[in-house]
Design goal:
Pathway: Carbohydrate acid metabolism. The protein is α/β, with parallel strands linked by helices. It has eight helices and nine strands. A nine-stranded parallel beta sheet has the order 5-4-3-2-1-9-8-7-6.
Protein backbone atom coordinates (compact mmCIF):
# COMPACT_ATOMS: atom_id res chain seq x y z
CA UNK A 1 0.00 0.00 0.00
CA UNK A 2 1.39 3.39 -1.02
CA UNK A 3 0.36 5.60 1.90
CA UNK A 4 0.35 9.36 1.42
CA UNK A 5 2.69 9.96 4.34
CA UNK A 6 6.10 11.60 4.09
CA UNK A 7 8.34 10.77 7.05
CA UNK A 8 10.45 13.85 7.85
CA UNK A 9 13.71 12.81 9.51
CA UNK A 10 14.97 16.19 10.67
CA UNK A 11 18.31 15.95 12.44
CA UNK A 12 19.10 12.39 11.40
CA UNK A 13 22.78 11.59 10.73
CA UNK A 14 24.34 9.37 8.05
CA UNK A 15 25.28 6.90 10.79
CA UNK A 16 21.68 6.56 11.99
CA UNK A 17 19.74 6.87 8.75
CA UNK A 18 19.62 3.25 7.61
CA UNK A 19 18.32 1.55 10.78
CA UNK A 20 15.78 4.35 11.30
CA UNK A 21 14.60 4.19 7.69
CA UNK A 22 14.34 0.40 7.78
CA UNK A 23 11.84 0.57 10.65
CA UNK A 24 9.80 3.26 8.89
CA UNK A 25 9.67 1.26 5.67
CA UNK A 26 8.77 -1.95 7.51
CA UNK A 27 5.92 -0.09 9.22
CA UNK A 28 4.51 0.77 5.80
CA UNK A 29 5.66 4.34 5.12
CA UNK A 30 7.48 4.53 1.79
CA UNK A 31 8.19 8.25 1.40
CA UNK A 32 11.18 9.64 3.31
CA UNK A 33 12.50 13.18 3.43
CA UNK A 34 15.81 14.22 4.99
CA UNK A 35 15.73 17.98 5.61
CA UNK A 36 18.86 19.67 4.31
CA UNK A 37 19.48 21.37 7.65
CA UNK A 38 20.25 17.92 9.09
CA UNK A 39 23.92 16.91 9.55
CA UNK A 40 25.45 15.91 6.19
CA UNK A 41 21.97 15.48 4.76
CA UNK A 42 23.01 14.79 1.17
CA UNK A 43 25.14 11.87 2.34
CA UNK A 44 22.18 10.46 4.27
CA UNK A 45 20.06 10.75 1.12
CA UNK A 46 22.76 9.03 -0.94
CA UNK A 47 22.89 6.12 1.52
CA UNK A 48 19.10 5.86 1.57
CA UNK A 49 18.83 5.82 -2.21
CA UNK A 50 21.54 3.18 -2.46
CA UNK A 51 19.83 0.95 0.10
CA UNK A 52 16.14 1.57 -0.58
CA UNK A 53 15.75 3.56 -3.79
CA UNK A 54 13.82 0.76 -5.46
CA UNK A 55 11.21 0.47 -2.71
CA UNK A 56 10.79 4.05 -1.50
CA UNK A 57 10.47 7.66 -2.67
CA UNK A 58 13.48 9.36 -1.14
CA UNK A 59 14.58 12.96 -1.14
CA UNK A 60 15.16 16.18 0.74
CA UNK A 61 13.24 18.72 2.74
CA UNK A 62 14.00 22.36 3.55
CA UNK A 63 15.16 22.75 -0.06
CA UNK A 64 15.70 26.46 -0.65
CA UNK A 65 17.75 26.79 -3.84
CA UNK A 66 18.23 25.38 -7.32
CA UNK A 67 21.72 24.27 -6.23
CA UNK A 68 20.11 22.21 -3.44
CA UNK A 69 17.78 20.55 -5.95
CA UNK A 70 20.71 19.64 -8.19
CA UNK A 71 22.73 18.25 -5.26
CA UNK A 72 19.86 15.97 -4.25
CA UNK A 73 19.33 14.88 -7.86
CA UNK A 74 23.04 14.06 -8.18
CA UNK A 75 22.77 11.39 -5.45
CA UNK A 76 19.57 9.89 -6.83
CA UNK A 77 16.94 11.66 -4.72
CA UNK A 78 13.53 11.96 -6.37
CA UNK A 79 11.59 14.06 -3.83
CA UNK A 80 12.00 17.80 -3.18
CA UNK A 81 10.06 19.39 -0.32
CA UNK A 82 10.35 23.07 0.62
CA UNK A 83 8.92 25.23 3.40
CA UNK A 84 8.24 27.99 0.86
CA UNK A 85 7.03 28.60 -2.68
CA UNK A 86 10.03 29.37 -4.92
CA UNK A 87 9.07 29.06 -8.61
CA UNK A 88 12.71 28.60 -9.68
CA UNK A 89 13.18 25.68 -7.27
CA UNK A 90 9.89 24.13 -8.38
CA UNK A 91 10.64 24.51 -12.09
CA UNK A 92 14.13 22.99 -11.80
CA UNK A 93 12.74 20.09 -9.77
CA UNK A 94 10.17 19.41 -12.47
CA UNK A 95 12.78 19.71 -15.23
CA UNK A 96 14.83 17.00 -13.53
CA UNK A 97 11.83 14.68 -13.29
CA UNK A 98 11.62 14.83 -9.49
CA UNK A 99 8.53 15.31 -7.34
CA UNK A 100 8.08 18.90 -6.13
CA UNK A 101 6.16 19.63 -2.90
CA UNK A 102 6.56 23.32 -2.05
CA UNK A 103 5.20 24.89 1.09
CA UNK A 104 2.20 27.16 0.58
CA UNK A 105 -0.06 29.06 2.96
CA UNK A 106 -2.23 31.24 0.71
CA UNK A 107 -4.15 30.77 -2.55
CA UNK A 108 -1.67 33.11 -4.23
CA UNK A 109 1.24 30.84 -3.28
CA UNK A 110 -0.76 27.73 -4.18
CA UNK A 111 -1.49 28.92 -7.71
CA UNK A 112 2.09 30.16 -8.20
CA UNK A 113 3.39 26.74 -7.16
CA UNK A 114 1.07 24.88 -9.50
CA UNK A 115 1.95 27.22 -12.39
CA UNK A 116 5.65 26.51 -11.81
CA UNK A 117 5.05 22.76 -12.05
CA UNK A 118 4.56 21.52 -8.50
CA UNK A 119 3.56 17.87 -8.09
CA UNK A 120 1.48 18.77 -5.06
CA UNK A 121 1.20 21.33 -2.29
CA UNK A 122 2.39 21.27 1.31
CA UNK A 123 0.10 23.34 3.53
CA UNK A 124 2.60 24.68 6.03
CA UNK A 125 2.47 25.42 8.89
CA UNK A 126 -0.65 23.28 9.03
CA UNK A 127 -1.33 24.13 12.66
CA UNK A 128 -1.64 27.82 11.75
CA UNK A 129 -4.08 27.25 8.87
CA UNK A 130 -5.94 24.41 10.57
CA UNK A 131 -8.34 22.06 8.82
CA UNK A 132 -10.66 25.03 8.29
CA UNK A 133 -8.00 26.87 6.31
CA UNK A 134 -7.41 23.86 4.12
CA UNK A 135 -11.11 23.40 3.49
CA UNK A 136 -11.50 27.05 2.48
CA UNK A 137 -8.54 26.92 0.11
CA UNK A 138 -9.71 23.67 -1.47
CA UNK A 139 -12.79 25.49 -2.79
CA UNK A 140 -10.66 27.45 -5.27
CA UNK A 141 -7.91 24.96 -6.14
CA UNK A 142 -8.04 23.06 -9.44
CA UNK A 143 -9.77 19.70 -9.18
CA UNK A 144 -7.32 16.92 -8.44
CA UNK A 145 -4.72 19.12 -6.72
CA UNK A 146 -2.88 17.07 -4.09
CA UNK A 147 -2.54 18.87 -0.76
CA UNK A 148 -0.62 17.46 2.21
CA UNK A 149 -0.94 18.90 5.72
CA UNK A 150 2.43 19.41 7.41
CA UNK A 151 2.92 20.76 10.91
CA UNK A 152 0.14 20.07 13.38
CA UNK A 153 -1.09 16.93 11.63
CA UNK A 154 -0.72 13.60 13.41
CA UNK A 155 -2.53 10.41 14.38
CA UNK A 156 -4.62 12.27 16.94
CA UNK A 157 -6.25 14.47 14.27
CA UNK A 158 -5.87 12.73 10.90
CA UNK A 159 -9.65 12.39 10.77
CA UNK A 160 -10.18 16.17 11.04
CA UNK A 161 -7.70 16.84 8.26
CA UNK A 162 -9.19 14.20 5.97
CA UNK A 163 -12.64 15.66 6.60
CA UNK A 164 -11.17 18.99 5.44
CA UNK A 165 -9.91 17.31 2.21
CA UNK A 166 -6.25 16.56 3.06
CA UNK A 167 -4.77 14.04 0.61
CA UNK A 168 -1.85 13.14 2.86
CA UNK A 169 0.56 14.25 5.55
CA UNK A 170 4.14 15.13 6.29
CA UNK A 171 5.08 13.80 9.72
CA UNK A 172 8.14 15.12 11.52
CA UNK A 173 8.70 14.99 15.28
CA UNK A 174 5.75 12.64 15.73
CA UNK A 175 7.76 9.93 13.96
CA UNK A 176 11.40 10.90 14.59
CA UNK A 177 13.50 13.10 16.81
CA UNK A 178 17.30 12.94 17.04
CA UNK A 179 18.38 10.46 19.70
CA UNK A 180 15.39 8.16 19.32
CA UNK A 181 16.15 4.47 18.97
CA UNK A 182 15.06 2.47 15.95
CA UNK A 183 12.58 0.62 18.18
CA UNK A 184 11.05 3.92 19.35
CA UNK A 185 10.69 5.07 15.75
CA UNK A 186 9.02 1.79 14.80
CA UNK A 187 6.47 2.13 17.60
CA UNK A 188 5.60 5.66 16.50
CA UNK A 189 5.49 4.67 12.83
CA UNK A 190 3.18 1.74 13.59
CA UNK A 191 0.79 4.04 15.48
CA UNK A 192 0.81 6.59 12.64
CA UNK A 193 0.11 3.92 10.02
CA UNK A 194 -2.72 2.44 12.10
CA UNK A 195 -4.36 5.86 12.50
CA UNK A 196 -3.89 6.67 8.82
CA UNK A 197 -5.41 3.39 7.69
CA UNK A 198 -8.56 4.14 9.67
CA UNK A 199 -9.22 7.39 7.80
CA UNK A 200 -7.68 6.68 4.37
CA UNK A 201 -8.07 2.92 3.89
Amino acid sequence: MDRAIIAILRGVTPDDILPIAREILDAGVTKIEVPLNSPDAVESIRKLVEAHGAEALIGAGTVLSVADVEAVHAVGGKLIVSPNCDPEVIARTAELGMESWPGIFTPTEAFAALKAGATGLKLFPGNMAGPGGMKAMRAVLPKGTQVFAVGGAGPENFDQWVDASADGFGIGSAIYKPGMSAADVRAKADAIVAAYDKVLP
